[in-house]
Design brief:
35% of the residues lie in helices and 25% in strands. By secondary structure, the chain is of the alpha/beta class.
Length: 236
């Protein structure tokens, strides 16, 4: 019987995706290297309640931001929503309505272009984490769009030493990459996977090993890419 391919995921990917991988003789260990924590303050709650009564245009670049805001909303607002990625879009649809989603992209650069196309957008509220990237805010400000940033969650790095050898490692954010490499080094060949180009660029700061990226920044697509990659290796 073939030995199972051993994969480390640096976040929790859920039982469904782990099961899909298992059907292809791939075992995925989930070891979260970051945690998300909602910001809790009276000022934040007051501001979101105020905004819930207004017809604002908002940006969400992660489902974490949507979930944090959802807890503070007294009503379902009629906001216009721009977001990054299908996971974020799905969370936005659950929290608001699909008709409220007016733009979606796969990264900050693309989302900035999408927002700029909507010439009526003069001001936008960016609900984000404390480690948000500069690409999107800089692009909007350069194009004369007023931006209010509201930090609704914090990313906390949780480094853990990994002693087991894995055939592949999955990374999902630059902060997860930094957390992992703060206490671990690549001493043996291992296939690295990144959810997107920004995460892949962060990996390159710590390792020269090849990095595989899916066509879209999606967890399910990344797992399917892992299955496809290892199914082509003879030893598998």
């Amino acid at each position: 019987m073939r030995n199972k391919i051993q994969i480390l995921s640096t976040i929790s990917i859920g039982t469904e995706l782990a099961h899909i991988a298992g059907e292809h003789n791939i075992s995925i260990d989930e070891v979260p290297f970051i945690e998300k924590e909602d910001v809790v303050s009276d000022d934040l709650q007051k501001r979101i309640v105020e905004l819930s009564k207004q017809n604002i245009t908002a940006i969400f670049t992660s489902a974490n931001a949507i979930n944090a805001v959802k807890k503070l909303l007294p009503v379902k607002p009629s906001w216009k929503i721009f977001c990054i990625g299908y996971q974020t879009k799905n969370a936005a649809v659950d929290t608001f309505n699909e008709k409220n989603i007016i733009g979606i992209a796969y990264n900050g650069e693309e989302l900035g272009e999408e927002i700029i196309k909507h010439s009526s957008v003069k001001k936008i509220i960016f609900f984000c984490g404390n480690q948000r990237r500069e690409t999107l805010p800089e692009k909007l400000k350069k194009n004369g769009i007023e931006l209010e940033e509201i930090v609704v969650y914090k990313t906390i790095e949780k480094p853990q030493i990994i002693s087991q050898h894995y055939d592949g490692i999955l990374f999902f954010s630059p902060s997860g990459v930094r957390s992992f490499f703060s206490v671990n080094k690549m001493n043996e060949p291992v296939q690295l996977f990144a959810i997107g180009t920004t995460t892949a660029k962060e990996i390159k700061k710590y390792s020269q090993l090849p990095v595989i990226i899916p066509g879209h920044p999606d967890k399910e697509e990344l797992v399917q890419l892992v299955i496809k990659h290892f199914s082509t290796i003879k030893s598998f």
